[in-house]
Write a structure and sequence with these properties.
Largest sheet: 2 strands, parallel
Number of strands: 2
Radius of gyration: 16 Å
Oligomer: single chain
Number of helices: 5
């Protein structure tokens, strides 16, 4: 939920490839980046890129907010109900 909260706060994100949400929430280069947590040089390079590059951080922040807006409690509940209906059909 931490990634969702950061995105809802209009922030770009750096998310570990071991985090289950990354395929759905992180669009590399658009709202953040994904990294291998066992590769320190990769993470360092991403922090450096965010701190010193000409990335459009404002656009990344906006995109984070747009992406996460699709992940509401209501939609999560609908997915659970649909799964139960499918499993019991």
């Amino acid at each position: 939920v931490v990634v969702n909260e950061a995105m809802a706060a209009n922030l770009p994100v750096l998310v570990s490839k071991q985090c289950g949400c990354y395929p759905d929430l992180v669009h590399p280069g658009l709202n953040g980046f994904v990294f291998d947590p066992e590769n320190l040089s990769e993470l360092t390079a991403l922090f450096t890129k965010l701190a010193h590059s000409e990335l459009d951080l404002k656009a990344m922040c906006t995109r984070s907010s747009e992406i996460v807006s699709n992940y509401t409690p209501e939609r999560a509940a609908e997915a659970v109900v649909d799964t139960i209906r499918t499993a019991t059909a």
